[in-house]
Amino acid sequence: MNTPAENRENLLRGLKQTVKVYESIEEKHRTEWFNSPESASMLTDGVYAGTAECHDPAFFRFTGGEARALCYDLGEVCAAAGVRPRLLSAELRL
Q: Which residues contact 12 (CB under 8 A, 6 or more apart)?
């Protein structure tokens, strides 16, 4: 079923995520500089990062590790019409 855009809502707006890490992260990467804290709201505040740089306050960072799962508690059973994840990357310049 296709739900018209005007009838859709962002079920995640303002929610905090739980981050599951699938492989241990090196000690040097266990800081907020390399990995945004789980309590950070930039993934659900509706503000898009403009650059893949730590200095952009809207950029949520993951560094190191194999993979992660982001989980959100919606508080009740909900139907989702879709998901629109956005990823930023930057070229490594040496």
A: 43, 44, 72, 74
**Radius of gyration over every alpha carbon of the chain, rounded to an integer in angstroms:** 15
For the chain, 94 residues long, give each residue's pLDDT as a single digit of tens: 566 667 778 888 999 999 888 888 888 888 887 888 888 888 899 888 888 777 888 888 887 777 888 899 999 998 887 887 777 776 666 5
Do residues 91 and 51 lie in contact, with contact meaning Cβ atoms separated by under 8 Å? no
Residue 40 Cα distances to 35, 57, 84, angstroms: 10, 11, 19
**CA-to-CA separations, 35 to 9, 27, 31, 42, in angstroms, rounded:** 29, 12, 6, 13
- Exposure of 8 by Cβ count < 10 A (0-12 exposed, 13-18 middle, 19+ buried)? exposed
Model pTM? 0.69
Which tokens belong to 47? Answer: 């503000």
